[in-house]
Amino acid sequence: MIAVLVALALLIPLALATLLFLVPWAIARRLTRVLPRTYWDTYTYTPWEMGIEFQEVCFPSGDGLSLSGWLLPRPETDRVIILASGYRGRKSELLGACGYLCRQGFGVFALDLRGQGESQQERYLTMGYREVQDVLAAVDYVCFRIPGARVGVLGYSMGAAVAVMAAARDPRIRVVVADSGFAFQKDIVAHNFTRVTHLPAWPFVDLAEWWVERRAGFRPSWVCPADEIGKIAPRPVLIIHGVEDDLVPVEQARTLYRRAGDPKELWLLEGAKHAGAYFVDRKAYCQRIAGFFERWLA
Questions:
Q1: To 10 degrees, the CA torsion angle through 249, 251, 257, 258?
Q2: What is the pTM of this model?
Q3: Mean of pLDDT values over 145-173
Q4: Are residues 177 and 232 in contact, defined by beta-carbon separation less than 8 angstroms?
Q5: Among the CATH numbers 3.40.50.1820, 3.40.1190.10, 3.40.640.10, 2.60.40.180, which is that of 52-184+223-296?
């Protein structure tokens, strides 16, 4: 009996130490890992399938990566909407909104953020920390191709967070539409860790931050669109979010709205899950975002 107790006294601390080492490391790896590309990644739809003229372009990020984009030109206008997808997303996912905005008379520029789609793969994903440079680079490219361009940005999920942070840093972005974006990255990491594992976020997420910093050079707590959104005013912001979003809780949208300056709008959709507002009512969604850009880019 004494031997069993001694063994337990030794094994339990060892098991806890292993758990506190492996789980945070696994979180950090899952968050920042760049998935290997396969030939399936090239099997995507393009604006060609929609009968829309487009140009495939490459342009540099601020830190030297090669980024990929589609330019859907409208030579008769200088109004251009830049679209950015979410975490591990790609520009082909944006075709619905791209096509509608183009048909409504806007120039459209859809980009793949670093490590996603056809853009150059960086060693790690950073969920917005470095990806914000890609939207700023897209603004540079659009303004180079179309001098004096009136630029709006539409982002989804991580792309929405990036759109907010980019607009806070670049006054050339005149209008922001943020669909399903987060206010605080660390909150989303903690929420989804608990949602998936049913374990408390503390201490695992705090320890994972340490691993993320050593692995990818940033901490989730450094990515806080809610701390930057107030800098966008007096430029307008439309925040869209599904009430049933289980990945990014709707309270994140309410936080962004509270912290944004005027003019601002909040559109919450019952029955919509993460980035699902478009699919609840495609026509109403497209009319709402196009109307917002039309009004504020006039």
A1: -160
A2: 0.93
A3: 98
A4: no
A5: 3.40.50.1820
